[in-house]
Amino acid sequence: MNPCNSVKITKLSAPDVVVINENNQEPIVLDCEYEINSIEKGFVLKWLLDGSPIYQWIPSRAPFALRSFKDRVNVSYEASSEQNYKHRALVITRPLWNFTGEYLCNVQTYESNDRKSKKIQFIQPETKFDVSFDNVDDEFAVVRCSVDGIAPKPNVTLRINDVQQLDITEQVTQSDDNLYHIVVHTKQFRERLSEGASIQCELKIPGANYIKTKDISYSNSSSTKLSTPATIMISIVMFLISKL
């Protein structure tokens, strides 16, 4: 085989991290640029995710997506006006967080083949992120951080006056669609929490530049815990009784 006549991938372009935006998602374009000699026959381009085919194109036929990518890829997208390069790109329009993995572009002819790959991390951002404290009695306060609707699982850290709290309790659950709900809390002596102490919660997804923080200040005379509807109703009833 003459290397000069072999199909060869020259560049694979794709993002490292994608934060999913369900309200206004920009298409994610994975482009596979290659060179092919006009004398080569039987050209086929395939995209694979973690070794499983998800997209295929033969220049004489229409491209098509496979598996869970069927309704989430723009198969009419044209990366080039030239026939042998027209549908080389994989364009994901409606990503899911479990699309994370190793994306491989494979190009082949009857005579030769080449492949390149790249890891992409998809993130489903949190729907809720809160930090709070509750003065539960005269002696103790509970400091709490909660995160809802996120994937993959983040690391959640609590800090008080910039000191990471190691004596914590973490509760982790997953919804039916495998999104995470995480609550981290620690119990503190109120006498050790100075008025205005900084309370910070940080969530971080390993392997991605995705970090969020929230800060509040501690108050010895109040609590950030909101009243539930039941508590509000009891207060109204007691007020009305007192007026009778």
How would you describe the overall organization of this protein?
The protein has 244 residues and is mainly beta. It has two domains: 8-123, Immunoglobulins (Immunoglobulin-like, Sandwich), CATH 2.60.40.10; 128-218, Immunoglobulin-like. Helices cover 6% and strands 45% of the residues. The chain is built from one helix and 17 strands. The strands form four sheets. Strands 2-9-8-4-5-6 form a six-stranded mixed sheet, with no helix packed on it. The chain is rod-shaped, with a radius of gyration of 27 Å. The N and C termini lie far apart (99 Å). 21% of the residues are buried.
Sum up the structure in keywords.
244 residues; mainly beta; Immunoglobulin-like; six-stranded mixed beta sheet; four-stranded antiparallel beta sheet; 1 helix; 17 strands; 6% helix; 45% strand; rod-shaped; disordered C terminus
Write the layout of secondary structure elements.
Layout: E1 8-13, E2 17-19, E3 28-35, E4 44-49, E5 52-57, E6 64-65, E7 90-92, E8 101-108, E9 113-123, E10 128-134, E11 140-150, E12 155-160, E13 163-164, E14 169-174, E15 180-189, E16 198-205, E17 210-217, H1 229-243
Parallel strand pairs: 2-9
Antiparallel strand pairs: 1-3, 3-7, 4-5, 4-8, 5-6, 8-9, 10-11, 11-15, 12-13, 12-16, 14-15, 16-17
